[in-house]
Amino acid sequence: xxxxxxxxxxxxxxxxxxxxxxxxNEPIKFGKLDPQDMDEKNFAADSAAEAVVLCDYGVSxxxxxxxxxxxxxxxxxxxxxLKKSAYDRATVEVPxxxxxTSEEKLSTLRGFTYxxxxxxxxxxxxxxxxxxxxEKSANVTVRKFxxxxxxxxxxxxxxxxxxxxxxxxxxxxxFQESIPVRWSEYxxxxxxxxxxxxxxxxxxxxxxxxxxTGQTQYTISTGGSFDDYGNRRSASSQTVSASxxxxxxxxKDVPAFRNEPYMTTSxxxxxxxxxxxxxxxxxxxxxxxxxxxxxxxxxxxxxEESFGNQAKxxxxxxxxxxxxxxxxxxxxxxxxxxxRHLVHHSVKYNDQDRLYATTTTRRAYDQHNGSAxxxxxxxxxALRDAGLTAHPVILSTRDHGRVNTxxxxxxxxxxxxxxxxxxxxKEMLVDATEEAMPCGNLPGRCLNGVGxxxxxxxxxxxxxxxxxxxxxxxxRKVQLQLDDKGGYTGQVHQEYGGxxxxxxxxxxxxxGEKKFMEELAKGHxxxxxxxxxxxxxxxxxxxxxxxYELTSAGNEQAAxxxxxxxxxxxxxxxxxxLHEDRRFPVDFGAxxxxxxxxxxxxxxxxxxxxxxxxxxxxxxxxxxxxxxSISPGENSLQIMTRMNxxxxxxxxxxxxxxxxxxxxxxxxxxxxxxxxKKS
Length: 679
Hints:
Elements: E1 8-11, E2 51-65, E3 68-81, E4 91-99, E5 102-103, E6 105-117, E7 120-125, E8 131-135, E9 140-146, E10 155-164, E11 173-174, E12 181-191, E13 194-201, E14 208-210, E15 213-222, E16 225-226, E17 232-233, E18 236-254, E19 272-280, E20 288-289, H1 294-303, H2 318-327, H3 332-346, E21 348-349, H4 361-367, E22 369-370, H5 372-385, E23 389-395, E24 415-422, E25 426-430, E26 450-453, E27 462-465, E28 472-482, E29 488-497, H6 498-511, H7 513-522, E30 527-535, E31 544-552, E32 561-564, E33 586-587, E34 592-601, E35 606-610, E36 615-618, E37 624-633, E38 636-645, E39 649-650, H8 655-669, E40 673-677
Parallel strand pairs: 2-12, 21-22, 28-34
Antiparallel strand pairs: 1-13, 2-3, 3-10, 4-5, 4-9, 6-7, 6-10, 8-9, 11-19, 12-18, 13-19, 14-18, 15-18, 16-17, 19-20, 23-24, 23-26, 24-25, 26-27, 28-29, 29-31, 30-31, 32-40, 33-39, 34-38, 35-40, 36-37, 37-38
């Protein structure tokens, strides 16, 4: 078995190599199309893909303007369109950072669409009216453009340059896409004055990794002081000769990244390289540390107006908080739950996950609407006003990506929850965005490794495990009466507990009872549900309970032999793990527990001719178990199945066993019971 590359690899700036390097040929020339790129025969191997990246080539280098270093990033990309579903790849977005009066600028934007028309190659130019500008966030503007007349068989090509004053915002590079990539190359020429941490991740090998050094002259500013971006102020100028490291990374024939069930986000696993400015060292100057530390992040956030200051107090709720304190005196856990309930009903979560408040907590309260940060920073302030010890925990949601604890990057976080210290060294993580989650359980989107607890004394701040205390719990007790045509009538008692309970309570609120039951019946061919009743709809600490009657018609006539499979109504029919291999973990978020108890009353005059054998399947290292048992009673059968997963995350090395586990349990639940009419 091929050993996988590590997910993260810190690359150091190369040193001690040759001082001069031969200039490498560029892998692509804009506007010079290879005729083979228009020949469909050359894409037979990619016929399953909607498109293919023929070449993606980027270069980052430093220029000096007015005595200060600037970053220049140039890119050329060429893509072959194979299916209509890839037409949206003709629309490209380029994010540009801005702060204060400084902004990154897009220049030399060019683009062509190539098509074969009556045996002739026709190319159409990107028109200026097909370029757009969009404000993405407070600091990011997106320049968007759409290439013309794209069809199946087209080749699209675009090139642009980004000029940046922000030395900390060195361009990252992604080698892998959701479509195959024939060639992806990134070059970065970095003078000795800049120390960048380089983080390579993914499972695809580099075809080329070169880092020769050379000498370049710059006329730069010297002396003076630094601004927040590593540039100098009040400086004189001089011409210097600097050592420059010329990095070159190439991946070729990169397979399309394949999304899989039970994963966080593709950003966690896709082949890419990211940069962070750790420090600068100018001539005759000491090293200037630019990198964040966890202590710096801690202090920055707690003094930030849109973070720490919004979590200090909730004085506008003082009357409600005082009443709750009196009601729950001496019970901090109950008081925490009551404060959470108050905040949830005061500010409705608007489905936006944010680290910083989008407004003041008072304004969010007045508008009864806000982001996750607006809700949970208000929660922390209210908990503090209630006399509880509450502090923020910052984290990254599953769709935002895992946090690498080795690298203090504030951009890795996009969410905040409350940490509450309870008596007897107990603690609780609290989120007020989703009422259906019991207090002390984070929403499923937050189950993503670890979070950082921010304390007033930064040295005491620490990582906290986000692993949940509850599970996905699915319990079902079924009583069925089988008739001589193979039809069923019966009653089902269903309980959805833990995270599954929260999920279905949310669906119930969204859909209503009638629509909820219609969707339940849709998944079972021939089912009719004439009567149903929900219980514990708003008792969030108890499972959501559902009782219903069902009928399922059989054949038109009675049969001497009946071939039945009642478990097909109450189990999955497909293995979620379709592919034979998987290169990254399976992450369920929480433990899983599923139980079915089925009593099947047989029609009069029939006896069991054949029935499945009991089965127990164990995952290695006590990772989980599936049990199936069946036992005959007087004119009845009792079937019990239980599936228990004892780990939230299974490594890529454990994937084969997990896939086989699911295959075996589904095969067992698909086995038929054979009944024979007595003579």
